[in-house]
Batch of 4 targets.
Target 1
Amino acid sequence: MQGWQKENCSVQPKELEAVNANTFIQRRNITRFERDSVDGSKEKEVGYSCEYRFISEGEYYTLLQQEENNAAVNDNLLVSMEAQAEIYEKMLAQEENQMVIMQAIADLYETQNGGV
């Protein structure tokens, strides 16, 4: 493993990359930038800057596994949030139904007791 170095890319780089069987790269702080075109045209050139370091094969597969685990956790959180939203919507509908029933009971009471 080496220290972090700066890198500029013309396409968005991957955070983890297996360059070949023995070379693995980790990147962080990937940021998009625009600059004036070198050839003088009015179009802006888009690029990416980041920090990178070479890592061992073991580190690469550990970080890859962590990414997969994080994705699974995020998926589970989304499912949980959707379920909570559905429960809340049902509670609101139940509350509305309860208000209708209470109003019907009040109307019935008034009818039977002469409005008193």
Target 2
Amino acid sequence: MSYFRRQGLAGIAILSIAAASPLARGEDTAAVPDRTPLSARTAGGDEVLLFPNGRWEYVNTAKATEAKKVADQFPENKVRPEGAQGGLFGIGRYIMPGDKDYNRRSLSGK
């Protein structure tokens, strides 16, 4: 058997194995993590929701709005306005949505 013929057979074998793989069939190989929040209680007995990313919030909406007011006073929660772009690693300016100087295309006049 010639060298090229052996290589061709090996290539066919590899292609058939790749075609049978889960990725080729469009299947997701990784399991999708469950992102539903867990119900819990604080030491004071208040019901809260625990999210997988470490965030938590009160189930009672009145307590949730009160907690948000307290959290908004801390400087670490005033880092970057929501919806702003830019400020890589705290360097540079933030571009707010609707900024007239952002995305204004070329100014060359062509």
Target 3
Amino acid sequence: MRLSILFVRPLTALIPLLVAIPLVLLAIWLVFLKLPAYDRWGLPTGAVSIESLRTHPEAALAYPDAVPSASSVSAQVDHTFFEPGHYNPVANSTMTLFTQISSAQVYTWYDRWLRARGWRRVVAPAHSPMLLSQWSYDRDTREEYSIAFSKASVHSGRRQFTTRYSILPYN
């Protein structure tokens, strides 16, 4: 009987240590690794990776009857990891699409979709003389979305337009 008491007491003394050690290790991991923080729209407060960009529906948002012809995605490179020629402060997803629908119908569809999700239309001048028209939106201070039809946009009765979703650096 005496022998069993000797084994039970050390084990009961170890229980708090067995609980405390993993908690301390978790706290150290959280502090030093700085798990990514997110803002209220689910955007990382650090650099935005391609994987993170793709989690947002706006990155692949396409008018239902449009046919995609090209797309590109670029990650945001954090300024703390600056290498000459590799600094990219904005994460972008760009798509070029074709549709037989009028630009007014396309703009109306995007306008309804975006406004229903907290976006607001902003007045932005067309960035290129090649653009026929462009509608731009923003959400808070970090997200931008644009839809643009180019002047040379009619091919075989189809109109070409480009969408761009951008996430700006966290300030």
Target 4
Amino acid sequence: MKSAPSMTSPDREAARVRDPILLFAQPVAEDPTTLGLERGAALLAGGEALLPSGLPMTIAMEHQPDFVRAVAHACREQVLRGRDWYSHGVMALVGSKNAGRGHAARRLAAATGLPLFVVDASTPAGRAQLKGTAAPGCTALPPFPVLAVAASRCGNPIILIEGVRQGTDLVDLIGPLIDPDRASRYESAHLGCALDVGEINWIIQVDGDEGVNRLPSGWASVVRFHPPADNRLELLSLIGAVSDELDAAGALERQTLVTVVEAALAGRGGGAPISELVDRLGLTLGAKGPVA
């Protein structure tokens, strides 16, 4: 094994501030597979997006004020540190099923322009993707978040992990990827190189406190989702999501949009996740077509 030259934190920070390209892959083996990441990956969603009039105002999640505050805090921290890209680290969204946590991740992705990748940790396939595979006789694949960065060439994508149930051991599942002391130099045995995954924006859906309590202190910020006090705010958020999905802002009369969303919201009955609701609304609105 050849050891890679070390890069100190100040050096890494200076490089990022000067040019927001994440110095992502450094070889640590004789024949590394870097997936092209030795050339770096872009760090996106900076500038005006980090201002108080930016993301906190444009994610349209006022019905979940704790989530809006968490995003605003992340933006302030980036500005204070002179880091011109969006980063919130690991955010654990605690709430009941269909509370809108996946919807929140999609709203954040839409507002930032960051690529969003979703993994279901409740399935064996999803857990294998998160940990990577290196079984004998199988092609060695790095953890899915690494592949997500390689595919998008974005160093700070949003990774949404769904299906974290009671008993899910997040430390075993993704510990090396989210440990703040190791994430900036995650050594991948699958690729033979050290990777900086410390800028990935993790959103983890957790159904109860047990999953959060399994994480070491300081590893994640916890945001609790509650039933909205005013359904009209949830309605506005859904309207925004539908408009984004259809790319039809201004193509439909506002009242037509509101009427369709209200009807679907009233018919939810707590059964369908908001993401599925948005999909159904998109099909409904798409069938209606533009209103003259």
